[in-house]
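INPUT
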Amino acid sequence: MGCSSSLPDRNSGRLGGLNPENGSANDSKNLRVKLVLLGDSGVGKSCIVLRFVRGQFDPTSKVTIGASFLSQTIALQDSTTVKFEIWDTAGQERYAALAPLYYRGAAVAVVVYDITSPESFAKAQYWVKELQKHGSPGMIMALVGNKADLQEKREVSAQDGMEYAEKNGMFFIETSAKTADNINQLFEEIAKRLPRPPAS
Amino acid sequence: MPSPSNSSSYSSSSDEKNPNSAPNPKPPSIDQSLDAIENQLASISTFQPGSLLEPESEFGVNDDEIREELVNGSINEIEELPGNSEEKLKASSSRVWANVSEMEEGAAPSSPSSSGYAGERGSSATSGVEEYGNDDFNDDEIVEVRSNGDFDGVAHSPAPWTPGKRHGDEDDDSVSWRKRKKHFFILSHSGKPIYSRYGDEHKLAGFSATLQAIISFVENGGDRVKLVRAGKHQVVFLVKGPIYLVCISCTEEPYESLRGQLELLYGQMILILTKSVNRCFEKNPKFDMTPLLGGTDVVFSSLIHSFNWNPATFLHAYTCLPLAYATRQAAGAILQDVADSGVLFAILMCRHKVICLVGAQKASLHPDDMLLLSNFVVSSESFRTSESFSPICLPRYNPMAFLYAYVHYFDVDTYLILLTTSSGAFYHLKDCRIRIETVLLKSNVLVEVQKSMLEGRMHVEDLSTNPASHPGIASPHLSQSRLATDSTERLTEFIGVGGPAGLWHFMYRSIYLNQYVSSEFALPINSLRQQKRLYRAYQKLYASMHEKDVGPHKTQFRRDENYALLCWVTQDFELYAAFDPLADKALAIKACNRVCQWVKDVENEIFLLGASPFSW
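OUTPUT
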């Protein structure tokens, strides 16, 4: 056995190390924020990120393992830049217990569901509650109904999404990673809502 | 034949004994239930082939085992559908193939499903059982016996089939499901399906329950079922606490090999979930594990595929990408640097071959863990998209605890895995990766790796053409012979030259290093099917050399219509060599001596030397 030299898993209880410094490290013109995507498996979290970061859409589903890390910088009209450091988490059940590792210290959480799947909407509500309990205080939360291009298969109305978002102080948007609809708007809207550090 | 009701209740008093059944003497009833499985599997050969013939559908397939049926009813076995399309064209023009394309795991994009999980498992194939209750296989049985009017003991079949034309894909799937030569199942001790190589797990609940019933029947008798021979089929069982693994195969692989494959399958599951998953079964014996494995179908199917082509699966050793000593040293130095900063293992790999590997002090990595880890990374597409951080468990290192893996691809083939015990180490590992990348680029390692992928391998032909000088790894001669291989690959009837004495292929495993090196395949073994057949022959040889009762042997020379195989085991190494079946024995032995010398001469380049010692 290779266990003879096995280290005890002494770090297992210690979460929250996945922060560069803080959730956001900023000077007044260049913001850096940690953003985490959460949601059921198959709702299109990775597709949203890849559309935003690389402008790509890959219809073949690639199940995310653990979490992927990507970053993208956008420039706002007021000439500030925002660098998003994005944790694209896996939606599988076995990773649920690890989610705190990724959302702890995040300044922004994007909770995604699939408008054709009420189950995924229920899962999104689970994540919202989880974040309200354990997320960073003052975290910006967005509720995203993805796959908006599949209107004919819609099972979660925009009204339901919006109402739930409003009730929970979230920002709501419906997107389509496939058509790129509202993807940039999502991240721009988030960027606008970021607290600005006082100019030094 | 035993009646269905007898075998289902396990209380039969029938005197009929099946001579092919369980080797350990057991009450006749178990023979019957096993008999039932055999019949169920064997019944496929009674098919009218007419409904199965869809030659054009086979083009999506690259790893599948089916039994080919000729129209006259005689059975011919095809070990594998060849992977490259030319081979397929050849094959389809000369042979009649059963329809298998829909069964290919992971080939079809997963359909989004309401559960989220079912779609992601990629098990698009169905077995045609869904119309029956899942938990009660007695019900299934009755329905089935009625539905197909089968009175020859097909008692436990959860997947009824009807001969002749079927309507819809599901039914065809069910037919082809039975035609598979090699099934793998993982199930829980309560009989809940966890994984099936073919077919949708949820729809195989009845079949799983049957397997569970067999295992627990024997266990209730204070015994353990390991192997059942049923005609051409072997049913191999492996019990790991609450997890049962079963392989049903008619590939004639030795029991030891199949059992080893089940062990690896179990290890792969532990790598994803750790052994602490057992606790779920302590809390709830009927726990359904399938959601926990969501999205990992492709990992398992890729592992099972590797049983056909990756000798690491039975040699329990890893292989290195051939590289100039200095190049590997350069990579090793930076990995060592990183390992000293709190990384447990730093592994740089190119596909399934190791470029360099460094462990923290006293940490050792078992070759099986490396195999499972690289299979996990290579088969999971998402790692290629961007850098990732994921919990994984190394079953031989510590089966109870997760480690955290930072994975990054430098190019399409070359990737870095950094393992740590700290869940918060991502940014540190990311920095490490950036440092490593800088060094690799500066010292040209990645370019050398690509070059080696293309040309720097051991060709048996070089043993004959250049016996006096040391055949170098990157000599121009090697690349020439590679080109020659490519251009002649399309010839169907090639009279193989191979190396001296008709040497076609060899594998050399260094026992001390726990590494192996294998030559390129000589032309007579140029198709995937032939390579798979050779690996199977090696596997048999390996099993016979390591047999506990008679072994360990020192040398073995066996000749059949396909090859002359020579195996030589010493304290330091094991050599497996395949020759032309007409090869002269004395010359073959000479050639093997030269191979060993050759390996010694280039060991700096084909092995990773001075890696942290392996101890387990």
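end of record. Residues 4-309 of chain B form a domain with the Beta-Lactamase fold (CATH 3.30.450.70).
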